[in-house]
Amino acid sequence: MTTAGLVALHRRRRLTDRVMTVVMVIAAVAAVTPLVLIMFHVLTHGMGALSLSLLTEDPNPPGRPGGGVRNAIAGSMLMVGMAMAIGTPIAIGCGIFLSEFGQNRAGMVLRFLVDVLAGLPSITIGLFIYSLVVLPNKRFTAIAGALALAVILIPVVARITEEMLLLVPRSLREAAFALGAPRWRTVLTVVVPTALPGIVTGLMLALSRIAGEAAPLLFTSLGNQFFSTDPLQAIDSLPTRIYTYASGPFDYWHEQAWAMSLLLVVFILMVSVIVRALVGTKVTVRQ
Amino acid sequence: MTESASPAAVDERSSFDFSPTRTVASPVGVNNAEAKRVALRAEHISAWYGQKLAVSDVTLDIDAHSVTALIGPSGCGKSTLLRCLNRMHEVTPKGRVQGRVILEGEDIYGPGSDPTRVRQRIGMVFQKPNPFPTMSIEENVAAGLRFMNMRSKSEIADRVEASLKAAALWDEVKNDLKKPGMALSGGQQQRLCIARAIAVEPEVVLMDEPCSALDPLATLKVEDLMRTLAVKYTIVIVTHNMQQAARVSDRTAFMLAGEGGYGELIEYLPTDELFTNPQDQRTEDYITGRFG
User: Fold this and answer.
1) What are the structural domains of chain A?
2) What is the pLDDT of residues B80-134, one digit of tens each?
3) Pick from A169, A185, A285: which is nearest to B147 by CB?
4) The complex's ipTM?
5) For site-directed labelling of B25, which of A120, A223, B96, B119 has its Cα 20 to 30 A away?
6) Domain count, chain B
7) How far apart are CA B147 and CA A185, in angstroms?
8) What distance in Å separates residue A282's CA from the closest CA in chain B?
9) How many CB atoms are located within 10 Å of the residue B181 CB?
C-alpha cells in the first residue's frame, strides 16, 4: 500500500473512532437521563408534602386534607420483611443447588423453570396467590401479600446466587476438597462466604424490586385505610396507596402520592447503602 | 545432582511435634534403610477425562520421608497422576480413575474408603497459591482442622503456630495472624497454603508445580522448605523445571505422552541416576533439552 493510502486509512480509522465514541457517550447519557429526571421530579414534587405527620399519622377520611400514611409505611415494611424472610432461604438454597449440584438434567430443568418464573408478570403472581391463598380463606391478608412478593423475589435471588457462586474460582473449592472437606462443607464454609457480597447485592436488587410492587398486592393484601400489623388482616402498602392517591380526585392526595414515592426511593436507597456497607466492611476486614 | 546421601535425623513419624531442633535438622536426602519404607504405591493407575485417556497404566512406589519428583513436558499427565494419588482427579468434571493406590496397606480407591479421609492423610498444595479469601491467616491454617471438627481453641492455636513455623512463615506473620491471607505476597501465600496442608498432619503432601507462580527468591524458600518437610512428611512434587527436580528430589519419575496422546511412566530412578545416567533414550533426549 502506498504512503498516501496508509494516511487515508489512518484518517478513516480515526474518524470512525471519534464517531463511535460520540455515539457511545450519547447512549450512556440517554441511559441515565431518565434516572436523573425521575429523581429530580420525585424530589421537587415530593418534598412539598413530606412532613413528620406524613410518617406518624394515618390517613384522614377521603377529602379532608392532612393526615399521613403511617399505615402504608408499616404495611410495606412488614410485608417486604416477611417476603424476604420467606424467600431468601428458599432462593439461596435454590441458587446453591443450581450452581453446586445443578450441572445435570435436573439442574437444567430447574434453571429453566426459575427463568420462566422470573419472567412472569407480577400481576399474574398476584392472581395466583389470590386463587391459592386469598379465595380459600375468604380474606385478604398481609401474609398473602408477602407470599406474592416472595414468589417474585425467589427466582431473581436464586439466579443471582447461582451466578455469584459460579464466579468463585475452582481452585478455592479444590483447596477445601484437598483438606478433606466434604462437598456441603466446602459450599457452606468456603464458596458461599466468598460469594456473599454478590449474593447480598442480589438481595438488595430484589428488595428494591418488591418494595415498589403494587400489582401483586392488589388482590392479596388489598390495602387498608387503617393501621394494622396483623398478618391475618388486609394491610396497606406504599405502592397500593400511591396507586390510589395518584389516580384519586384530590390535590393533596396527588402531593402525598409524590411524597410516598420519595419515601420509597429513599427507603430503598438507605437499606441498600447500609447493607452493602455492612457486608463491604466485613469483607474488607476479613478478606 | 548435589544432594548428599547422609543418614536422616528422623526415624519415625512422631506425634505432632514441630520442635525447631527437629524441623531445622539439616535437609538431607533420606536414603538410610529404615526410611526406605514405601509410603504410597500406585498400581496400574490410568486416568481419563471423559473418553480421553490422560495417564496410562502407571505403577510406582514412593518412599516415605523423601521428595519424589514427577517431571515431563506439558500434557504428559504428571499433574493428573498426582491428583490420582489423593482422589482429587475424580473431583474434576468427568474425571475417572482406574487402578489402585496403596497407602499403609490399604487401597484408597477400595470399597469403604472415604475420599475426605484420604485427602486428610494425603494433603495437596496447588500451582497457584489459593488461600481462602474470606479467612484470616490464622483461619486459613485452621481451616482443615475445622473440617476435621477440631473444637479446642488452644489446640487449634497450637497447631496453627506449629504449622506456620514448619512452613517457615511464622516469623513473618506472627503479629498479623488476624490479617487476611490474601494480604500476603505470592511466596508467603504459597507457604501459607503449605502450612494449611500440613496443619492436618497428613502423611503425604502432594505439590503440583508449587513454585511456578513464584519469583526465584520465593521459589528458593519453598524448595528449602520441601527438603525440611521431607524429614517428617513424604513429599511428591510435580515440576516441569528439571533443575528444581534435581535440586530437591531424591527420586524422579519421567513421564511422556507418546503418539496416543496419553502419558506414560518412562523411567523412575534415584534423581542423580536419572539425570546422569538415564536408561531410556527418551529420558536422555528430554533432560538434555532435545525436546519439551
Assistant:
1) 70-286 (1.10.3720.10)
2) 999 999 999 999 989 999 999 999 999 999 999 999 999 999 999 999 999 999 9
3) A185
4) 0.84
5) B119
6) 1
7) 8
8) 9
9) 27
